[in-house]
């Protein structure tokens, strides 16, 4: 089977190291996974004033989440938490009340930073948010300390140890997506 993975890049920076990581992750993923980016940069700041009439960017975001079999977040850690642009996108996807697009969606979180803890605190914060949103979470942790020499100009990971980790992580995520989709199918409790 093939599974559609919608992915978020939590950075708006042109030279984002997390965008670099996202390219490497996609290249190292099993061929059963098909990736589509869910863009966040043009979303207005969310307010519940929009709930009666979502703008096109908000509708497109919710449709992209709902059309995905699984969701991958590739994000930096800003000030020990989730970057504001990504949190804003999650808020859009979670509303209007009762129409949370993340419910029952299998999710995974990975990220990179120059520092040694490799976005661990952001990921911990993300798990609280995704738990509240009833999104099943892949348990494996992907904390990647960024080494510029480990990626070429096409975003390919040239470091065998990191590449091996990412390949295994994504193959396990594919299996997790499959398990959640089976459990979500009609006829299962
Ligand atoms: C950072 N950075 C950072 N790094 C980290 O490991 N923990 C942190 O809490 C923070 N906080 C933080 C706040 C803000 C506002 C910025 C701009 C940066 C450093 C960060 O990891 C580094 O700039 C990365 O390049 C960010 O990833 P992107 O945006 O390049 O993908």
Automatic annotation (TrEMBL):
One of its GO terms (cellular component) is cytosol. Pfam families: FMN_red. GO terms for molecular function: FMN binding; oxidoreductase activity. SUPFAM superfamilies: Flavoproteins (SSF52218). InterPro entries: Flavoprotein-like_sf, FMN_Rdtase-like_dom, NAD(P)H-dep_reductase. Residues 4-141 form the NADPH-dependent FMN reductase-like domain. Transmembrane segments: none annotated. This is NAD(P)H-dependent oxidoreductase. It comes from Georgenia yuyongxinii.
